Amino acid sequence: MNQWIAVGALAFVGLLIPLGMMAVSYLLRPSVPETSKRATYESGEVPTGGTRIRFNIQYYMVALLFVVFDIETVLLFPWAVVYREAVVSEEISLVHALGPMLLFVAILFVGLAWAWRKGAVEWAQNPGQVGAEVDRP
Amino acid sequence: MEVPLEAGDTYLLPERISDLTGLGGFGMAGELLAAFIAAFIVGNLMLAMTGVAGPWAKRKITAAFTDRIAVNRVGPWGLFIIVADAVRLLAKEMIIPENADRPAYDLAPIVVAGSAMLGFAVIPMGSGVQLADPEVGLVYVFAVAGIASIGLVMAGYASANKYSLLGGLRAIAQNIAYEIPLVVTGMSVVLFAGTLQLSEIVAAQSEPLFTIAGVTIPAWYALVNPFAFVLFLAANFAEVGRNPFDTPEAPTEIVAGYQTEYSSVYFVLIYLGEFLHIFLGGAIIATIFLGGPAGPVLPGIVWFIIKIWAVFLLTQWLRSALPRVRIDQLIEIGWKGMLVLSFANLVLTAVIVALIESPGLWG
After folding, report:
1. ipTM of the complex
2. Residue A22 covered by a domain
3. Model pTM?
């Protein structure tokens, strides 16, 4: 039996349970439409402005950094699986088993160090950046 | 009907059900039905544990930590409050904010709750309860556990609420910051086991590590590599958004984060999804660090549930004991601390594995 059938079956059950709960709730719950009940919640105040607000650029910076490191982890997994076998067999030297991975990680850490120096992984701006913002005409 | 198992194969739950009920004789339809029955059993087991017992236990545990009594009126130890709560929550009126982005707003709770369930498909729970055992098991678990991030950011964006938007953004920033340390630390376990198949990882942990006073201590990776265990625990708490890393739904800052505008059954589903994620995290920790379902005397599944609940108890302990970190601290801990430490752990583990397995290589 193909194992992925069971995974698919669990995905189906995982859909069925929320949909079932929604159906039960649909039968049970009342509906009392009132004006301004559906207004956006802003701690009881009258909502002001739109909700598509400007937010911190840092969210994009860390997302970009994540893409790089996520691909790295995907590429490292095959190495992790064969590493032990390679070392036990003693057919290749340790330099050949470990070296390329170290080089690969080192290249990405140069990138991280650069991003670190540029302040991409720092949430609060440093005083210099804040000053530049204030001085801007 | 009896197919001899090859080495490394496990007798999975769908096959067991198909053999027991004779469904195997009905070809494809029988296979599908057996898989569905097995999935239904596992799904409802997890639902009973997380959705039903979880919130009740959370109230009891938190109350014990803060010297209160908590629910005790309805039924023994207040257990029947679960039923009352379920009916109360499902019977609430659904209020949908007028600016909500409809398809995304409705889909988000289903994505959050459904994706959390998927991860349990490959977890070996002992006593033969395991739905599937693919060779890429560990990668599969990490992959499906990550789907919830999409659901959270959908919820945050589609609610058209400033608190929700900030909560969704925080959730995604936190999840991606701690995903790398989580996966890389999990990789250091693969270095020891040499496989991604979860049943094989569990089997590798049954070897004896050392013997003290006649008691053989198994080589659980939490004991073999405690540093990786602590890193993985910390990254896992950030990944499921629990204290001290619960910034995405920090009630004192952004009300309830991405779930601010959700009510009625949608709120239940998001809440359920979060609980399922805590238990999925516990299941992953139990599988790759605590020997899976291994344990003396009691059957495997009981040990497995005990281990999951131990991790859950730890999350509730931290919830009562630790303050929340700020969002800037959270990002800096993730990218500057955890990331570097997890790669250091990976390289160190690789060197240790080489030292243990073939001292000859060192000349």
Report:
1. 0.81
2. yes
3. 0.87
